[in-house]
Design a protein that fits this description.
150 residues, Immunoglobulin-like, five-stranded antiparallel β-sheet, three-stranded antiparallel β-sheet
Length: 150
């Protein structure tokens, strides 16, 4: 009996993880880029509020290269099981120090995007706002069990 409960719990958590995390990206470029000679995968945790909804925290990495000439970067993603009325919260850290906080709305299809400046230009002089490696934490309120949705 305990093995069935354990297997059911593991299966349920795998199901929730696979179908609740669609995508999240942060970049000033198209495609993936190597950071310290390797790519970084996202990491996601879910904390239940009341058994129906929970807070999904995804941590991804963002790299603004020294050669970057694009003025904007963005964080984007799609939430498969978004709870309407809750924005996405974005926190950007460099070496564990907070450097930027933001929130953005989620569309009816579950998509979100937040653009932010990585370069500043004033009177022809360009300076970097973001340079190097950053961790980006993305917080989303999600339904925990999609079978309960009407």
């Amino acid at each position: 009996m305990n093995k069935i409960i354990l297997f059911s719990s593991i299966f349920t958590m795998m199901f929730l993880f696979v179908f609740s995390v669609d995508s999240a990206f942060a970049h000033p470029h198209s495609g993936q880029i190597l950071i310290n000679n390797h790519t970084h995968e996202s990491h996601t945790e879910i904390v239940s509020f009341n058994g129906m909804i929970g807070l999904e925290k995804t941590t991804i990495f963002f790299h603004s290269s020294e050669e970057n000439t694009l003025p904007w970067a963005f964080v984007e993603g799609k939430i498969a099981n978004h709870v309407e009325g809750y924005p996405v919260i974005i926190q950007i850290f460099k070496e564990n120090d907070a450097v930027h906080f933001a929130q953005t709305d989620v569309s009816s299809t579950g998509n979100y995007e937040y653009k932010f400046r990585v370069l500043h230009s004033d009177n022809g002089i360009t300076s970097k706002i973001f340079d190097g490696d950053y961790s980006v934490k993305i917080f989303k309120v999600v339904y925990l069990n999609q079978e309960n949705l009407i």
